[in-house]
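To assess whether ligand presence alters the predicted conformation, the chain was also submitted together with zinc ion. Input:
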Amino acid sequence: MGFRYWLHVVLDLLFPSTCAACRMPVSGSLCLCAGCMADVRYLHSPLCVRCGALFAAGNGGDHICGACLRRPPPFVLARAVVLYAPPVSTLLQRLKYGGDRTVLSTLTHLAVPFDLTPFASCDLIIPVPLHRKRLRERGLNQSLLLAHGFFSQDAQVIRPDILVRTRDTAPQTRLGGKERRKNLRSAFAVTRRADICGRSVCLVDDVLTTGATVIECAGALMRAGAGEIKVLTMARAVESMIVGPAGKETGRG
Ligand SMILES: [Zn+2]
Ligand SMILES: [Zn+2]
């Protein structure tokens, strides 16, 4: 527990009713102020029925995007709860880099209107793993904590022990889609093949940006014999693209 964690704990004790994102006072038991709450962007149709990429408004109903048609990703479904923008990006960064677990209840609360049904039916829930070195540095895996937030009733099927990150890859933040996939090549391995053989898996991550991470993870799980993979992320970057497992950039889907 770092200094920032305890600072937040003390602040929260002294000022119990502040917005979880901007720290402005809020009334009652609300976790976000009205201004921040108004900025939360849930993702709505029209979107790609497979990868969840957003289509420009007026582009008809949900349909499969060109990228998924040309090069189907190794998962059958990917969805995000909200768009990656403040206040959610602020909360996720605070969790990921500041070790602040107090934002979790707000993130879980924001996921309440989101339909988890297609994911709750999966046999196993697997968070995207961190390399053990980075896990030691951060003290938490944000994807595992989010998985527990999304599926609080299904703790027994949340399995952080099946998929491991075997390489401590460079941070992805400044890399483009192509570099991200190169950076991640063979970065994940399945340790318990027998446990996933033929099983459906819900892969959980915090943010989907280019899709490179979940494509690598889903690929590793499928090669190890998983039945099918669905991807659930808390947020989706507005510029997010879904690209094939080994191909060139296929553009916005
Ligand atoms: Zn606020
Ligand atoms: Zn698509």
